[in-house]
Amino acid sequence: MAHGHGHNPNEKVVYVGDSRIRKPSSVKPAPPDYTSFPGKSEAFIPNFLLKEWMAGVVMLVGFLVLTIAEPAPLGYPADPLNSSFIPMPDWYFLFIYQLLKYPYTSDQYIVLGTVLIPGIAFGALLLAPFLDTGKERRFYRRPIASSLMFLSLIAACYLTWVSWNTYQGELEKNGVVPEQIERAEKSKESIEQGKGRYIYGREKEVALVKADDPAFSIMQKAQCIACHGTELEGGAGPSLRGIGDTLQKDQIVDTITNGRNNGAMPSFKDKLTSAEIDQVATWLSEQKADAAGSSE
Amino acid sequence: MFKGMYNWIDERLDVTPMWRDIADHEVPEHVNPAHHFSAFVYCFGGLTFFITVIQILSGMFLTMYYVPDIINAYYSVDYLQHQVAFGVIVRGMHHWGASLVIVMMFLHTLRVFFTGSYKAPREMNWVVGMLIFFVMLGLGFTGYLLPWDNKAYFATKVGLEIAGSVPWIGGYIKELLNGGSIVGAQTLTRFFAIHVFFLPGVLLTLLAAHFFMIRKQGISGPL
């Protein structure tokens, strides 16, 4: 290449001697000629991009509203021994998940479901330009390609819908609340009770305050522990550890005397004297997380 | 001053032609939503890229707090979601963005399909686009495991069992992704690496090829 020996005026980059040093060119590249396209063409940056940004803003507002209205779900930590959990992939895999549940795409025919059908569908999609080689671009003039696409779309939507519907049915049948919803509710409840945010596996067990108090032996005799647990840690009934944080003494007296939740917590006014009830309530109202922490 | 700086760089690197090539190419009327409202269907590709950028940025912030090990992964996500300022927004954007990018890419694919834009000479760009689609599905699958809750764990287990049912090579694929014979500590670190390094690397390469071809071939003409 004879860069040194006079240069082609059309060549933009001109090298002098050392190939790395350019002779500055006075010719500035001209903006492209817009007349070759019919209609109102315009420059990509900034003219067109600002218009596309309008579509972007519409989408972004929807996106942010969704993000703020609906926090990302989080269930409980993975437990491989949990046998009751109903597995569910993300929504855009549901069609293939459902496909594998039909008799001719599962068990001994599983290869049909996992390789053959998706392989043909996605293979055809990948190679579409080589299968649909006609010059015609309008979809209604390409009946085979278009109808195959419509059919696949309908099939995928149907499978997704069936999968989701089945899942909802199973949840209802087994009386299961999805973990992320249950967790969010427990967390909210826990915050309302002043116990701080609920973190699975990191619950703080509040110790009993004054465990040798005679009130506790009254409760043992009255069979409170049958429901509330031998150490009042909870069982069929709620835990009474730290109950003083949520209930006042007079509320506790009322609960023991009259019961609660239509008899789920029975009335004890016939089994205990009002003096005993008062003694128990006094002791329970002293069950506070702070006091338990300092007594340890 | 900026002009002076620009000229100084331009003298040495000759960036003007590159900038002209990126910025100054003309966009025809039939894809411009300002001229034809229905042309918004041509925006889905750009929107997909926009969300992809959001995914990359939000993902980079998530890795500041996320810990890819089976003891701490769940609690780091919990912490990120509830304790970190704006953590719930950043994780929310990454979570919903993952779905939205699939939606937008799907709509973009349908637009290209039904306008017959994949026809000669643009076959290669369609194939690259489909590869981007598969990479995105891979990103969705690997990202789903990372919070390490029951939903993540069991969905991944099912997914890997499906991969394992492929004849001959299925067992190898499953073991490669699992990092052993069970879904466990190795699986989580592998999925993390695939989600954060391998697939984004492939994705960016494919996107570069996609945009290069669009620039070379121009957008398909009006129907």
TrEMBL record, chain A:
One of its GO terms (molecular function) is oxidoreductase activity. It is found in: Membrane. It is a multi-pass membrane protein. The keyword Iron applies. Residues 207-288 form the Cytochrome c domain. Residues 34-162 form the Cytochrome b/b6 C-terminal region profile domain. The chain crosses the membrane at residues 48-69, 109-131, 143-164. The keyword RNA-binding does not apply. PROSITE patterns: CYTB_CTER, CYTC. Keywords: Electron transport, Heme, Iron, Membrane, Metal-binding, Transmembrane, Transmembrane helix, Transport. GO terms for cellular component: membrane. This is C-type cytochrome. It comes from Cohnella zeiphila.
Automatic annotation (TrEMBL), chain B:
SUPFAM superfamilies: Transmembrane di-heme cytochromes. One of its GO terms (molecular function) is metal ion binding. Keywords: Cell membrane, Electron transport, Heme, Iron, Membrane, Metal-binding, Transmembrane, Transmembrane helix, Transport. Its main location: membrane. It is found in: Cell membrane. Its cofactor is heme c; heme b. GO terms for biological process: respiratory electron transport chain. Residues 5-223 form the Cytochrome b/b6 N-terminal region profile domain. It is a multi-pass membrane protein. The chain crosses the membrane at residues 39-67, 96-114, 126-146, 191-214. GO terms for cellular component: plasma membrane. Component of the menaquinol:cytochrome c reductase complex. The main subunits of the menaquinol:cytochrome c complex are a Rieske-type iron-sulfur protein (QcrA), a cytochrome b (QcrB) and a cytochrome c (QcrC). This is Menaquinol:cytochrome c reductase cytochrome b subunit. It comes from Cohnella zeiphila.
